[in-house]
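Objective 1b: paired records.
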Amino acid sequence: MKLQYGLLALLLASGLSSAGDLTGTWELVSGEFKNAKSKMLDYQQEKFVGIKVINTHHFSFISKRNGEFWAAASGPYTATDTRYTETPTIASFGEVGEDSYEFRYTLEGDNWYTERFEDDERVEYEHWQRVTP
């Protein structure tokens, strides 16, 4: 048991993670979201970039659109094997501490794919890639 615990501690300390582990730093690769006019916008066409950092209890992200600040938020999150929910307590948008954003996700190695739905309609899709040291 001590050897297994020691190996796990070594893997976590080295920045390697086990399947399903969302902790780390993530860079936005691609995605799309539905704007206020119900038009789906492509992240690459809109020149979106973003970084998300997740530790054991909190997330934080910042993003830019076409070289200009777009959004930032931070707060606690919860996760299961297929669902990830952010509850911003500080954000550059909307009410904080009241709204949560639930995503369905899949994790494939260092690639994290998230989808957010409202009324059974997908309103956001993102592909994140783990930033390795």
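Objective 1b, second protein:
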Amino acid sequence: MLLVREVTGPSRVAAGDMATYRVARFNVDHPSDAEACQVNWLVKTDTGTALTNVHQQGPEWHITIPGTWAGLTILVMPYMRSATQQVSVRTKVEALPGEYIVTGGLHVRTVQEGRRYYASVNEEPRFYVGTDVSYGPRRGLMNSQNPYGPRYAPEENEETQGFWAYYLVPTITCESRGAFNCINTYDRARFTYGHMQFAVHTPDENFVLLFREFLALPSAQVYFPDLTLYNGRIHQKGGQGLVQLEDRESSAPLQAYLNPDEYRVDAREAEIAARFMDWCARDPQFVRRMEDFAFQDQRKKVRRHARKLPLEGLSDKLCLVILDILHQGRAKYTAIKAALSRNDPFDALLSIGLNTYHDRIATLRAGILDLERKGIVGKRVY
């Protein structure tokens, strides 16, 4: 079996420049052209996020470095069967002096390989969008394993958000492992997005509100030129004028816009997801809007929950579990009240939904105990 043993390429490169990577040595001398042309190339960040994967490119790869990779350290790995860091080039992509935002037209091309979908924006190297999965009778995309793009960093929000910058980390870890580009289009919500997994099926809540924030950005007309805000609500432009996609009673038209068929995955669904992912990777304002929205949303919701639950004087540790339960929707107020009356309310709250959501609750418990060890929770009360 032909294997790649050594690769060469630049140690530093500027975004927008052409870089060349070459297989310097195989496990056999002088392999045939037919064998060598089967070389694949995988690019990851030094933290493990997949950036692009190009199949059967051959032993030499010329790539124009996307602006979305600026400031990253990338590992470029040629391979035949599976990639390894032992055969890779480590390249530092120099940061750009300004923001790298598309200002002209946007062309998105999606490619399906088996159950996996990839997308290329304006002919740049493709990125992984998601995998076609089933959930009951529905089908949709999921990319929770290794989403493309930036991730949440609490220390970057500490100055503006203080305690809350760390307070949401356990739930963010449960929902997306910090990936802003985490998507889910396979369940009844039809489209769920972001590091806190905001769903579109709740009118005047969650992703509907967040999408309004996105559409207020200057770059919105590049990514969704057929959408606009009118009277504070999302509308689609058409030949007959504006069509309203959401109101206080329903977001069904917006759900259908984002995910046309909840029982199958198609190119349109993959393209919509790819547009959000590229927008997130390019525009820092997009990420800031999502972060700010998450903080505002959770503060608002804890105040709302306090009108239905006995939160007055309750520890921040318990409030955090309650916020997570209600954010995911794994129980209602009655079950939470019952758990709060137990001798150990922390364990009682974490037992809610344990049989169904064991892994999530284990992650949540570990995250909260980590915050407690660091002195971030366990001292405040509502």
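The longest helix spans residues 284-306. The first strand starts at residue 4 and ends at 8.
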